[in-house]
Design a protein that fits this description.
Elements: H1 20-23, E1 28-35, E2 39-46, H2 54-63, E3 74-83, H3 97-101, E4 112-123, E5 131-140, H4 145-162, H5 164-174, E6 185-190, E7 193-197, E8 205-206, E9 218-219, H6 228-232, H7 239-247, E10 252-255, H8 259-271, E11 281-283, H9 293-297, E12 306-310, H10 315-318, E13 324-327, E14 333-334, E15 337-338, E16 343-344, E17 357-360, H11 370-381, H12 386-414, H13 436-446, H14 458-465, H15 469-496, H16 499-503, H17 508-525, H18 535-548, H19 552-560
Parallel strand pairs: 6-8, 7-9, 10-12, 10-13, 11-12, 16-17
Antiparallel strand pairs: 1-2, 1-5, 3-4, 4-5, 6-7, 13-17, 14-15
Length: about 575
């Protein structure tokens, strides 16, 4: 594939480091066009010195256009996700308050980029092929699907009319935005509009200079949530199957008629297990040109634990060996209700005209929630607004996931050593290892039945979950948080200890060793650990006092070994 920049990149004499605010939201903005000689090509990248590798540019090129089978005329919006190049240094956001405070499902993705696409294909007699084809793409590490697609609806139509100057102005506006802060409502001005975004209604407001002069803000109730009801409307009676397959990180292919539908459904599946983070790879829109195509479609090994969204019907043959395939068509009505797909045997998945359905041999561990399904179907008949239906659906999925995860959280907390066992004179005590059998024994008295009405084999679901990437990711995260908590407690205990008194009857070698260890602890740990205000300053002063009492030759040794 050829990925030249066919137009002139917008110039800005400032170095990339001056784009700090822009970079807290976006990596770059790309314009992808169809060139008769080159095929899909990047026409423009902004900022002009955005550090994309050739492989990343190729991915953006191919993923920014619907494939020819989708037949997308007019304006189309969809999302994709691609792996950053090997060897690329992940950005250092420093002591990033955002990732520290954001829910795990909204943290920056340091291994992948998201692409948010606004594609336009319209008849144009002035073009040789007879069609104008172009995509405006926002590339970011943030999973803010709703915010970025709303932003594209504002800027893309204007860009297609006015081109470069418009894009330059928009990027300069974004560079004036405050950084994203969890729990804070932000006013984000763009092209004469103000988008008001936040995670809590009671949040304080932060507004860039001059935005109070603009019109009343457009309130975005969410930055990342999708219309779940719209996504799942043709599979409402099989929600339990989809939730369990996602929870267990099973290999899953979603075949849809358009990249809009494929990307929305893949992202809806990933969000269905929130607040648990989906820890495997997922591709909202995946094509044969994807850099991981061979890796993910090889038949020499078991299918990988990924969710792929595809639109090319020839993928049916490629993915015949996969255990779970969701084939969807355009939503159709059966009377006044959406026509529901059926669960079918994999053996029936053979031809290109395969009918919509969930092709799997998987049997759910838990029974479906018939009350929920009845409530949603009744809502359709009563013409209940989609956002209300989505809220009902989201609450159900949240409560189901929380019912599943709370016993694990409770057991994990019991593995933490008692605070009184943390002393300044010993290394922090160890967290007890996770025992699956010990955890299972807690379920009789403290299991999910306390918070969920769903019947079924919860223990079987946990045993299967223990073998999944999602358990591994959850456990690693919790253990890291607990280790940091222990180290914080230990650091506070050291800060409160009478270190000067302890040194009085110790040899000079022991005192030097203590100073070196404390300095190393201060340098390495204080950036990551949460300790009470003033404790670290107190400890640093104490270390200086101890060091100053040593003979001059030993002070020189300490100076040479300063970390």
């Amino acid at each position: 594939p050829v990925v030249p920049v066919t137009g002139n990149a917008v110039e800005r004499t400032d170095s990339r480091s001056t784009w700090a605010q822009f970079l807290s939201w976006l990596e770059c903005v790309c314009v992808v066009t169809f060139d008769l000689e080159l095929g899909q090509a990047i026409e423009l990248v902004y900022p002009h010195d955005a550090k994309l590798t050739e492989k990343e540019k190729t991915s953006i090129c191919y993923l920014s256009f619907p494939d020819s089978y989708s037949g997308c005329l007019g304006d189309t919006q969809f999302s994709f996700r691609f792996r950053q190049s090997i060897g690329r240094i992940s950005p250092d956001f420093g002591e990033d308050a955002y990732d520290r405070d954001a829910p795990v499902t909204l943290q920056r993705d340091l291994g992948h980029f998201y692409g948010y696409v606004y594609f336009r294909q319209v008849k144009d007699v002035s073009v040789k092929r007879g069609y104008f084809q172009k995509s405006l793409v926002l590339v970011s590490r943030l999973p803010y699907v709703h915010l970025f697609h709303t932003l594209l609806q504002i800027i893309a139509p204007e860009y297609f009319e006015k081109l470069e100057p418009c894009l330059e102005a928009v990027c300069n506006e974004i560079d004036q935005w405050p950084s994203p802060v969890p729990g804070l409502t932000l006013n984000l001005p763009v092209m004469g509009t103000v988008l008001q975004v936040g995670t809590t209604p009671q949040s304080k407001h932060r507004c860039p200079l001059g935005c109070h002069l603009l019109p009343a803000p457009t309130l975005l109730p969410t930055i990342h949530e999708l219309d779940l009801f719209k996504c799942f409307q043709s599979a409402l009676i099989h929600l339990q199957v989809l939730w369990e397959l996602t929870l267990l990180g099973e290999p899953l292919v979603v075949m849809a008629p358009s990249p809009t539908m494929s990307s929305e459904i893949v992202l809806a599946l990933v969000s269905s297990i929130a607040p648990l983070k989906y820890c495997s790879d997922y591709r909202p829109y995946f094509t044969i040109h994807d850099s991981e195509f061979r890796e993910y479609t090889t038949r020499t090994q078991a299918p990988p634990n990924v969710i792929l969204g595809v639109t090319n019907p020839f993928f049916i043959k490629t993915f015949q060996s996969w255990p779970h395939i969701v084939r969807l068509g355009d939503p159709r009505m059966a009377g006044d209700l959406p026509k529901q797909v059926k669960v079918k045997k994999l053996a029936k998945l053979k031809t290109l005209d395969t009918k919509p359905g969930i092709y799997t041999a998987y049997k759910t561990f838990l029974q479906k929630d018939k009350v929920l399904i009845k409530r949603l179907l009744k809502g359709i008949q009563r013409k209940r607004p989609s956002e209300v239906q989505s809220a009902i659906l989201r609450r159900h999925l949240l409560e189901l996931t929380q019912s599943f995860i709370i016993p694990l959280e409770r057991y994990m907390a019991s593995l933490m050593p008692l605070q009184r066992s943390v002393t300044p004179w010993k290394t922090p005590p160890q967290i007890r290892p996770f025992s699956q059998e010990e955890f299972m024994a807690t379920l009789e008295h403290a299991g999910p039945h306390l918070t969920s009405m769903l019947k079924g084999d919860w223990m079987g679901l946990y045993r299967r979950f223990f073998r999944s990437p999602n358990f591994d990711g959850w456990y690693r995260l919790r253990r890291r948080e607990m280790t940091q908590k222990l180290e914080s407690l230990h650091l506070e205990a050291v800060c409160d200890a009478d270190l000067v008194g302890w040194t009085k009857d110790k040899s000079e070698v022991e005192v030097v060793d203590l100073v070196l260890k404390l300095r190393e602890k201060l340098v390495r740990k204080t950036g990551q650990l949460s300790v009470r205000e003033g404790a670290v300053d107190q400890l640093e002063g104490c270390v200086q006092t101890i060091a100053a009492a040593l003979p001059e030759d030993l002070q020189n040794v300490l100076h040479r070994h300063r970390p």
